[in-house]
User: Which sequence fits this backbone?
């Protein structure tokens, strides 16, 4: 088996997945969405949800244009600078086009988009192991950042006493400390694990640089969601936004549903409905409307950006590299 076919079999496991593994996320999304929308089956319920969409601020359209572009460019910047730091000769312009092209796969699932990025960068000449560990590092840094952001909200007192999210955030912070300790100390038992050894070789200094490169993207991710919710009348205290939005982003990235549709909106109702004025039914309708709008805008933005980048030579080469690397 060639290195290319090995890489494709590792980072594109979706092609080997059984039918249940492929269909299950759709089943989960459909089931949760159906449960969420069940109260709105009546004429009165539909009117409540329609009114929640209708009351969205006129700034929503401007945000719908600015947010996907800002997310794309800030992600491309972090990706380019991280690859450049570890010796990959790739320009910011080329990275923008590659990340734009792979945004089509992000629209299906963010993890799939990262897998496709790995294959595309490897196929343009970067050694397979180097490509894999850099993409892995960027994903680790993303998890560290959302844990730290949520931790800030926790320390600031935004968490309800005894809440399950507080426990999860505390656990994530503890795992972050353990991970960074492993990177710093490099104990022998972890050095024998090839993946951990690769990450440890980058050291705390390398992790710090990758962290700084990713900060603008993390800021855009948090900021645009706060602004979108404000467009729907959900005005969160900053500490509450910092505490709850990272877990929500984690749910979206989990492969248990399609783009987080269903589970993300369900969690958002639990997290944010208490911060909307009016009765509980109207508050929940506003949160659900905001959640579905966020998913629609990010997905549509990814598709438009992806199709636009696919018209370029770099975009077409990226798609060809993926097709050539696909096993079977």
Assistant:
């Amino acid at each position: 088996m060639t290195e290319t076919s090995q890489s494709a079999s590792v980072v594109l496991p979706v092609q080997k997945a059984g039918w249940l593994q492929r269909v299950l996320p759709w089943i989960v999304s459909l089931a949760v969405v159906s449960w969420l929308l069940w109260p709105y089956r009546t004429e009165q319920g539909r009117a409540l949800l329609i009114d929640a969409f209708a009351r969205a601020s006129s700034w929503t359209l401007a945000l719908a244009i600015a947010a996907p572009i800002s997310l794309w460019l800030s992600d491309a910047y972090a990706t380019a600078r991280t690859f450049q730091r570890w010796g990959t000769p790739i320009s910011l312009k080329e990275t923008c086009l590659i990340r734009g092209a792979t945004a089509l796969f992000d629209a299906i699932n963010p993890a799939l988009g990262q897998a496709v990025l790995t294959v595309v960068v490897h196929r343009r000449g970067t050694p397979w192991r180097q490509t894999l560990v850099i993409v892995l590092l960027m994903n680790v840094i993303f998890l560290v950042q959302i844990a730290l952001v949520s931790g800030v909200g926790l320390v600031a007192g935004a968490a309800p006493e005894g809440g399950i999210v507080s426990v999860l955030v505390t656990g994530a912070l503890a795992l972050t400390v353990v991970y960074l300790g492993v990177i710093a100390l490099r104990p022998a038992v972890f050095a024998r694990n090839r993946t951990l050894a690769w990450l440890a070789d980058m050291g705390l200094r390398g992790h710090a640089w990758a962290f700084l490169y990713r900060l603008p993207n993390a800021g855009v991710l948090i900021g645009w969601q706060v602004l979108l919710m404000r467009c729907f009348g959900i005005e969160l205290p900053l500490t509450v936004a910092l505490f709850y939005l990272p877990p929500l982003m984690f749910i979206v990235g989990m492969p248990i549903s399609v783009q987080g549709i269903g589970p993300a909106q369900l969690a958002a109702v639990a997290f944010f409905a208490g911060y909307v004025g009016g009765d509980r039914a109207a508050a929940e309708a506003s949160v659900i409307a905001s959640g579905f709008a966020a998913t629609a805008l990010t997905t549509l933005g990814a598709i438009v950006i992806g199709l636009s980048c696919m018209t370029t030579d770099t975009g077409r080469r990226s798609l060809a590299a993926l097709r050539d690397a696909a096993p079977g």
About this structure: Residues 1-10 have pLDDT under 50 and may be disordered. The two ends are 12 Å apart (CA to CA). The chain is about 80% helix and 0% strand. The CA atoms of residues 190 and 196 lie 6 Å apart.
